[in-house]
Write a structure and sequence with these properties.
The chain is mainly alpha-helical and about 270 residues long. It has helices spanning about 5-10, 20-30, 35-50, 60-70, 90-95, 100-115, 150-160, 175-190, 195-210, 215-225, 230-245, 245-260; strands at about 75, 95-100, 120, 130, 135-140, 145. Strand 5 and strand 6 (about 145) form a beta hairpin. Helix 1 packs antiparallel against helix 2 and helix 11 (about 230-245) packs antiparallel against helix 12. Pfam families: Transglut_core2.
Length: about 270
């Protein structure tokens, strides 16, 4: 199977193999990645962390797990400009530096193997974790507890005072949602680093995962524009137009479609 086929096969399992699926995403960008070797190394990491955790009920071990990861060097990568390696799980495991989502996926897999209850939260701008039933969230970059006021401050730092904290920001993330977020992150990272083919690989995956937004179709249309593929660009602009609720955006999309050459048919 191709890495993409293996990725979707992971999602068909019950429960979905989230961590392995994220590794298959990395494999699409790194043909030399050895998944079996990575999984063996990960098992060793899990055993090392397990032996150093305090003797507490498993429901109280999520924060010690994240702190132990931090002790071992796992931390947010603040180097700018950001590169795709901060979201490619094989590189994050190697460098122990990455985006909050990548660190969170590693923490979730460690927790799963150690039977520590932990779930992901697709918080805007900064992926977070939560122990089910707890009154706080956890930052995957070190394990800091975040209560509602901390979440409001984090949201304001990311988006300014106009975006208010709501219940939907704190909902548990499903595997497909986390993998779609990872794919969007990689799409933007590859684009920012002028790797349009790499960005297109991620843009296609975003839409194949379902529930694509107007922004997702528009992002892929812009990549097709850069790659001089007008027919594919038209297809995505038309889909973005169908999904858009913004009158101004709809006018701009209609104008942009009008400037494209008519569909060419190859016989």
């Amino acid at each position: 199977m191709t890495p993409r086929q293996s990725f979707f096969a992971c999602l068909q399992r019950s429960p979905p193999a989230l961590f392995e699926a994220a590794l298959w995403i990395a494999a699409e960008h790194d043909s030399e990645m050895n998944l079996e070797s990575l999984l063996v190394d990960f098992k060793s990491l899990q055993q090392r962390i397990s032996g150093s955790l305090p003797m507490l009920p498993v429901s109280e071990l999520a924060q010690p797990l994240l702190r132990r990861m931090n002790d071992l060097g796992f931390a947010q990568d603040d180097f700018t400009p950001l590169r795709p390696q901060v979201a490619l799980l094989n590189r994050v495991l190697e460098r122990r530096r990455g985006q909050p989502l990548a660190l969170g996926l590693i923490a979730l897999e460690l927790a799963r193997g150690l039977e520590i209850p932990l779930v992901g939260v697709n918080f805007p701008g900064h992926f977070l974790l939560r122990v089910p039933g707890a009154d706080h969230l956890l930052d995957p970059c070190g394990g800091r507890r975040l209560y509602p006021n901390d979440c409001r401050e984090l949201l304001q730092r990311q988006y300014g005072p106009n975006l208010k904290l709501s219940a939907e920001h704190l909902v548990t993330a499903e595997p497909v949602q986390m993998l779609q977020r990872l794919s969007r992150n990689l799409r933007q990272l590859h684009l920012s680093n002028d790797d349009y083919i790499g960005a297109l690989i991620d843009a296609e995956r975003v839409l194949e995962l379902g529930n694509g937004t107007a922004a997702d179709y528009l992002a892929r249309a812009s990549l097709y524009q850069r790659l001089d593929c007008p027919n594919a660009e038209r297809f995505d602009l038309e889909h973005a137009l169908l999904l858009s609720d913004d009158p101004i955006q709809r006018i701009r999309l209609t104008e942009r479609l009008g400037h494209l050459p008519p569909n060419s048919i190859v016989h």
